[in-house]
Each structure stands twice: as C-alpha cells, then as structure tokens.
Amino acid sequence: MKMDSCLFTLVFGLSMLGGCLARVVTVSPGPLIRVEGQTVSIRCDVTEYSGPSEQDFEWMMSKEANGKKMNIISSFDTRYSDPSLSKRVASGDISVARLKDNEVELKIAEVKSTDAGYYWCQTPSTDSVISGNYEAKVQLTVILNTLKVSPLTPPPVVPEGSDLTLSCNVTRELSHPTYLSVTWSVKRGATSEEILTFGPQGDVVTGAKYTRRYADGGIRLVPGKNGFFELVISKVTTSDEGTYECNGTEWTYENGGKWIKIVESTKEMGTVSVTPTGQSLSVKAWSSSPSSTPLLLSPGEKLTLVCSVSADNLPALALEVTWLADGREIVTMELSGVVISNTSSGGAQGKRGEATLERTGVGEYRLGVRGVSGDDGGVYTCRIRAFIEKGGRSSGGGGRWHMAAEKTSSPVTVKVAQIKPSFTVTLEAVLNPKMTAEPTELACRVTNITHLPPGGRLGVTWEHTTLPGTGGGPQTSHPIGSLDGYGNLLPGSTYSDRLKSGVISLTRVQPDTFKLRFLRTQEIDMGQYVCTVSAWSVNSQGDIMNTSEYQSSQLAVRWDTKRPTLNVVAKRIREASVGGATFEMSCAVASENLGEAGYSVLIKWQDSLQGTVRTIMTLSPDNVLQHGEATDPSRRDSLVLTKSGPAEFQFRLAGVQLSDRGFYWCDITAWTKQQPGQAWTKATSAESNKVRIDFQENGPSYSVAIHSDTNIVNPWETAKMECSLTVQGSSPKTGTQTDDLAYEVRWFFTRLRGGETTTLVASVDRFGVVTKDTRNSSSDISIERKDTHTYMLNIHGTQDSDSGEYHCVATPWYLSASTGAWTQAKELPSSRVFLTVRFAVWDSLKLPLLYGVAASIGVGLFSLVLGLVCAQCCCRNTTHTPRSRNKLMDLEMD
C-alpha cells in the first residue's frame, strides 16, 4: 500500500511538471498578400499546452495594428461574430475549419479590399499555470486583381518539321512585391499536359514528357520585354497537334519561405494541326537537258541525271538520296552529306562507271557517271527518305532522327552507243632541274587524234609517283591536278595548297598541248610523272561527256642532292674581367647548299666543361625572344640577344656575377619555307666554339659563425641564435662604409642531429625583407639585425617540436669599386647548434585535471537541484479548480 502511494505521488508530480510548459500560439507567417475576390486561408495552431487535447480558437481583426479589434468567428461560440460579419459567416463566406485538435484554419471564400488589416488568433486558457502566449497576429494585405493574360493565336496548320512559336503576354500592375509565372500547356481531348513553366523566380520547369526535348534544344524559351514571352517548339511532328493554352499566375513569397499562388488566369491560344511530310513530298528524276526517251549516250560520255525534291517543309527536312539502276543502289548521299558509292565490279551487273552524287541546289541532287559504257545502260530511279530531327538546334543531331516519309521517282531509261575517239600521248621535259629550288617544266602533247566528234575537247590529269624509299617510306602515287573538258582546274588534295598559291601551275598552251610547271622544285618532287589525256564529247543535251582516256609513258625527274651545312663562329666583343662588368659576344653563321633561310639561336652555358648544359636565351626564326630555365627572373633586364646582321647575332650580359663564370656558346638552327605562308621546316643546325668568362673576385673575403646563449630552454621560453659574419681584408671601397656591403641570410632546421633533410625556417634578403616559412608549431619566429654583420634568430614560445639542429647560410653582396655594380659573393654556411626544449609534464596534464574537477562539481550541483525540485513538486498537497474555457481569467498561484 505504501508503494502504491509513492507511485501515485510520483505520477502526480510529473503531471505537474508537464503543466509548467509555456503555451505557444502561432499563425501563418506574414505579412500576407492576397488578391481581391480570391480565397484566403490563415492557419493557427497551439502547442505546449495542458488540459484537454482539443483546443478552441477565436479570431479577431483590426484595421490598424493597435486599433479596435472586431470579433470574426469562434470555434465554439456561434454568437461570437460581430453583427457586421454575421451574414458573411452565415453564408459560409467566412468560416473556420478544424484541421487537428490543436490547429484550425480561417477561410474567406472571396476576400474584399475591406478585409485588409491585422488578424488575431486567440486560444482560451486550459492551463493550470499561465505561461507563454495565448494569441498571435498576422497582417493581411488585399490588392486588386490586375493580372492580364493576352496570348497570340498560333497558325492553325503547320508543316511537319517546321517551328511553332507560341506567344503570350502576362502583365499586372505592381503595387506590392508580387511575382509572375507563365505556363504553356497543350490539351488533346480531355487530357492536358504542361509543356513549360517560367517563373516565378526566373526558373524553368518542364513537363515530364518535354524534359529531354527542352534539354536538347527542341523547346526554347524567348523572354521579351513588358511581360511578353515566346515558346518555340522546333521540328514539330504530328504528336504536337492539339489545343494550346497559356496560363499566367501571380505569386507572393512569404516569410515562411514558401511561394503562394494568389491569382491565376488561363487563356486558350488556339488549335494547331500538323501536316504530315508524306502528303506534300514529291520526287522527280530527269535528264539535265531535253532528249528522246530513252536517253542515248556515246561510250566515254558522262551520264547526268537530276533528282528534284519538293515539300511544304523542305528546309526542315534532312534527306537521304539514293540512285538506283535496275533496282540496285549505285550511290547514296547520307543525312550528313557523306556520299557512298555502291557501284560493283564484275558479276551479273557488269562493270559500271564510277558514280558521283552532289547537291546542286535546294532540293536538287545530280547523279554523274563518268565514262559510261554499255554496262551503264538501264532503268534509273531516285529514292528519297525524309527525316526530321527529334532534338533541337543544340542537340547536334545525336542520331535522334525519325523517318517522316519515303518516295521513289518515276524511272528514266538510259542507253549507251558505241563511239570512242583515239589518240597518242607523249610526255617530255622542257626544263629539267639540276638542284633543289630550280624550276621544272613538263609538256604533255597529243597526236594522231581520230574519231573526236565536232565540238569535242581534251582534258588532262597529272600524276606523280615518288622515288622508292623517298622520305623513308614506301613508293606512293598522288594526283597533282587535272583540267576537265571545260578547262576547270581540279587540284589534288596533296598539291591543292601549292596550286592555289601559284607555286605549281597547270596550263593548256595549245588545244593539243598541256604543261606542268614548278617554280621551285623540292626534293619531294623527284620521281616519275605521267599525264593522262581524256576526250570529251558534247551529247544531245549539250553537256560534254568523257568518252575515252589515254596515258603517256612515265618520265623521271631527279637530280643529285647536297645536304646543307652550317659553320658558326663565336668571338668575344667585350671582356668581363671584374664582377659587375659587361660581357658581350657575337656569333656569325656561314652556310652552304642552303639558299634563303631563317635562323633560330640558343645561347647555352655551363660552369665547366663537364658541367650541366643550360639554355640562357632563345631567338626564333620569327625573332621571338624567350628566356631559358637558367635565367634568374630578376636579371632578365641584364640579358640582350639581337640579330645584328643577315647571319650574325650578338649576346650581351650586363653586371656579371661570380655565378655567371663559365663557358658560353651559340646553338644555331637553319629553317626554310617551301612556300610563303607555310610553317618553318628544319634544314640543319650547328654549334659554335665556346667563349669563357673567368674573372677572380677582388672584393673582401668573409666567414660566418653561429652561436646560442643557451642550448636548453623550457617550453614557452624564447630561444636566441646569433649568426655573425666577419669581413677579412679591405672592404670594396674604404673598408668602413657599411652602405657598400649587404647580406642575405637564411636559417635552416633539421630534426635529427647531423640529419641531411633540412627545412628553411626564415630568411632576410639584402634589402631587409623578412620571409618566414609555414610552421606546424605554435611558436613564432622573428629576425633581428643587431648590427651590420650580426643577425639574431628568435624563437618565441618554444615547443617540443622546435628541438633540433639549426644553422645559417649567408650570401654577401658588395659594391664593386671598379664597375659601381653590386656583386654577389659565394654562399657561406655556418656550423650547427642543437637546441633542446624540455618536455612540459604539468602543461600536458593540467587541462585534463581541470576538466575532471569541473565535471565532478557540475554533476554534484545538478543532483542537489534535482532533489530540491522533486521535493517541492511531489510532497506538497495542492488543490486546483480549472477555470471556464469561455474567457481568459487570471489564475491563483501558490
């Protein structure tokens, strides 16, 4: 029984502790901006309360923040509303709906401008102790409905593959901070799909079926001025048919971080139908000139047929064009424009001529079969496959095509007669080169011409075969170029640039004589040459056709080649006998078997004949100057490399230092150009003799020493190490002037005694600028200059990680009396000192001990306070009578 009494007391005490929670009443974050005539919803909830779980709510409003309040509606008192609002409450225009036991929602079905003001949500008390807030307010702003949506009517019918532009104007009068969004959608029957939404924060959201299409660029948003927006749907298909709508929405952004739609308007733009490509696609095949049917050709002539394509949406289509002879594909132009020839050799179809296919105009494709024979006769048809790209302009095709239509033209019958001209072709050399760069001229002559019909013409094709092993590769043949029956020049791919620049020329000097001329013959031009003369006849349509071809015998063009050579001589112009003086040398180039050339120069240096070779400066054949890896960036102004003559260069080094002593020479490369505008080609290279800089230091000599006042310090003390320099002999000028002498001092540290791995701690240059390296220790470094020859390194707040071996390295700089320039002496390392920092036992233990003591005291104090609270709450006999829920009342408290 005693145990049950104690259990009851504990439960009662816990319930009393729960009653001490502070009540919190919250409403929708404001201020709220709403549009007149729209529905308004304001939520209110209460938490941290005691009493029954279901709470009641009362709503009031006032025009001003501190004005007189007017009762709106209550969740439990039907007579609560102000008489001026009773009709609106009775009609349901103003209502309150319970969402949860502790949450309700005030609704105004059609808000009016007079409803603007401040709204209070109040909860009557059911708590045993008054604590927290019992009401909350929010401001409601009501603005006029100024949203206007004005779409433009799209075209009712568009061809498949074309672009559809949907224009919509969405505006509103800006009186409060509101935002706009525009949404395009398409309706097919009873189903409506969203295409794209722009806004309200400038973002773009696409419908599920249009996401990839928008990413590919098939749908583009074009924002304009003054609320004008355009949505462009590229490459429409029949699936894009439907009724398009434009929706404009006005939004407000509330303090709670939510976008709230306050008014929207949807307008129908119009119904769009898409005309399939197959309805308008038309294909015709015909000869380029009027003729009888069937088309009659002579052997060797060229067959020319034209395939004409028309469609309502032709610019939006990608066409695959295929010519067929007797039902077999002979040539195809793919969507990418690549032409694939499918002519076969041998077999039942015989040997057909090589077929070509080219696009000659919009929707026109010309088939050409050169040198027709009897095997080229037959029935020719043109097949067109029309494709539409599914993606947009930014997709780059990506292979996402769908075939919209396929059609084949009516047939064209072709027959070939048997007439063939004959003649003899001879090739001779008019100018034969004796060495590289001399001109070459070859003449191709035609004799004994028979059966060339009236109006017939001659063309020529030149071909070159390299000598065996030329360039280290196999023997290859390349077409140089040709003159067709019209006299048009058709250059070969290998010789195209040289023909266009005029270095090589193809001419017809007489009706039966052709010439090939090289202005400057190169070594790669040696080899065997052949000319092929073709006879061209005019057919009944007025076109000229290639009817026969004859080839000359081979003609060899070659000469003895001599390799170019260079001789480079370097000589000293100015001697550097003391530090700070100027050194200057020149390099002259003499060449043989080279001709016109450009030169690149490398100035090289090594400290000894066995030392590492480094590059000081370079000069390209285009006179572009660069510094090499051995050049100190601070001394680049002291280095000069110039071209002093057609084949002579000068190098100058001002203010020489001890580190500049060594051997200098020129490495020169000759470069040639085969023709103007081409890149440089390396011909040969050579190095000059070496010129030496060797002078002795005439300044004073130095020594450096390091010492510390103590080698063992305690943690957080300051360790001091002094680096002192001693000048032996006279100073550069007077021996007493400190302005003529400066030092660069660096301190190094290694963890182990005698260790090889050292770390730079800090440095001071000769101008007094101090540089400290990044440290892992909490200690700090400073450098102090005590006098002209003494520098002090201070380690403040030493730690165990500062224990180790230290030494300094000094570099003296002195002002040369002979040249007046600063001269760098050699580096001087000091001996090493070892610094020991004692281990701090108390520092490593004091923080854990202090934390333990503080935690023990805190736990004890918390236990005492908890005991007192339990004694006060659980052992006191109190009786409390809850107040009425109708009004807020003051509570009596013990």
Termini gap: 30 Å
CATH fold title of the largest domain: Immunoglobulin-like
Kindly give the count of domains: 6
Instruction: Enumerate how many helices there are, as a single number.
Output: 6
Rg result:
49 Å
Class of secondary structure makeup: mainly beta
> How many strands appear in the DSSP assignment?
62
Helix proportion range: under 10%
Low-confidence blocks of residues = 1-19, 345-350, 394-398, 730-736, 878-894
The CATH homologous superfamily of the largest domain is called Immunoglobulins
Write a structural description.
Residues 22-131, 151-246, 290-384, 421-548, 564-685, 700-829 form the Ig-like domain. This is Ig-like domain-containing protein. It is found in: Membrane. Keywords: Disulfide bond, Immunoglobulin domain, Membrane, Repeat, Signal, Transmembrane, Transmembrane helix. Its main location: membrane. The structure is a single chain. The protein has 894 residues and is mainly beta. A hairpin with a 4-residue loop joins strand 16 (219-223) and strand 17. Mean pLDDT is 83; it is low at 1-19, 345-350, 394-398, 730-736 and 878-894. It has six domains: 1-145 and 845-894, Immunoglobulin-like, CATH 2.60.40; 148-275, Immunoglobulin-like, CATH 2.60.40.10; 278-416, Immunoglobulins (Immunoglobulin-like, Sandwich), CATH 2.60.40; 422-557, Immunoglobulins (Immunoglobulin-like), CATH 2.60.40.10; 565-693, Immunoglobulin-like; 701-839, Immunoglobulins (Immunoglobulin-like, Sandwich). The strands form twelve sheets. Strands 52, 54, 55, 56, 59, 60, 61 and 62 form an eight-stranded mixed sheet that branches. Helices cover 8% and strands 48% of the residues.
